[in-house]
Specification:
elongated; 2 domains; six-stranded antiparallel beta sheet
Length: 548
Amino acid sequence: MDNQRTLLFAALAFVSVLIWQAWQKDYVLPPEAPVVTEQASGNTGAQQTDIPKTSGSNSAPNMSGLSDQSAQNASQGQIISVITDVYNLEINTKGGGISQLQLLEYPEEKGKDARVQLLNENAPKIFVVESGLVSEAGESPNHHAIWSTTQNKYALQDETLRVPLTWRTADGVLVTKTYVFTKGSYKIDVETQVKNAGTNSWSAREYLQLKRNDFTEKKANSFIYTYTGGVLYTDEEKYQKIDYDDMQDENLDVKAVGGWAGMIQHYFGVAWVPEKENQYSYYTKAIDGGLFVIGAYSPSKTVAAGETGTFNSVLYAGPKLQDQLAATAPGLELMVDYGKLTIIAEPIFWLLSFYHDFVGNWGVAIILVTLTIKALFFKLSEKSYKSMAHMKIVQPRIVAMKEKFGDDKQKLNQAMMELYKTEKINPLGGCFPILIQIPVFIALYWTLLESVEMRQAPFALWIDNISAADPYFILPVIYGITMFLQQRLNPAPVDPMQKKMMQLLPIMFTGFFAFFPAGLVLYWIVNNVLTIAQQTFIMKRIEAGKDK
């Protein structure tokens, strides 16, 4: 194996993965959600199947319908408007869940007024947050019950904002659900207090769930696929993806102390984090209308007459900011999905953030990280480039040997091995240093692709969004030129077919990179320029006889 073949296989393998992911998205993964009726949107129709029924069992929940009174009140409810420094959201008193949520600091498109609508109760994209209590005694404040409010508009003025909703029974049980918003934070504390002023004890379980259909946001680049679906984290199994097909095939039934359940999409996610001291049962369910549910319910808690009990949970809804995720719950930062190379990608992101704190520009940070990675692999790269330089020098002699021996492969190989031995060339010397760097390059690719911190971030000149493709295709063309120049420094393949394939690579990759985020193309350009400089320096030293 020679260096050119190694580079060719590595490049084609990388592009093949991207093409396969795009094909999966277009032809294998579920298409956009079909037209959903109002019933499926959570207004009236899904009520028969989306409430956990935990009575008398610790097994995975079946789903029960509404009580008579909840059914009668199903069409009622009013909207509570809540505005913080990061949210514009709505809470519906019918169920007391968050039915609409906009992220004020994240435009849908660069330079446009519309903000990212993360939660929405209406088709075609349905994604809502639900919670409630289920009591074996009968009527309970589930997410179809009618809650009461003292006002319908709230705005954050201080460091925190509390939005309470109440529900009560005829025999003196008062339940108060309070959303607690904190300035600058995408973490929402949810306190559910049960005050029993009656004469009998009252028992209930808390459940926390997310409901979503399989609508997938359209991306400008079909070559980039990112996961959309359910995720679960427990101390025992750690981070797991539970996609819509998994939910359709079977109901999840996992019991764990601590952990969290969520649903994620590119750059953003929502997760429920239950009380870490108690064992919760995590569940999933596919329900009518093309909807999927993931959530958790608590052990039964009994509140004696005259006593007060409280359920505490945390809701994270927003961009996948790693510092806030890590501060909210153990393992929540894994919502940033770097895939199998997370162990490499996380230090790369840390380094990117470190440089960004100094220079204030993610594009410049990418350049500095590329320089750092190149420096770390300098010695390995040096061995590879020395090998390629020596191979280029003896290339004319190899061509002459091929002409001399013709189809006699045995004599040709013997002569080549003798040449390598005489010139002290290891034909595999350039392969291993390149191969060992490939995981790092792929990890950097996923770091740049998955990090919301770089979403719509400007670089310089015409590049005002490093997460989008270069609008004028200048960077992809520059990349193609640098790839062509780099090839000129390498020994030309002896095999004519392989030589033609290598000549086509700069054109092919220029076409592919025309649709890639500018930040990724910027990385490859800088990497190629550094490689050209290093190879040129080594080649001149070897030709001058200063480096053997």
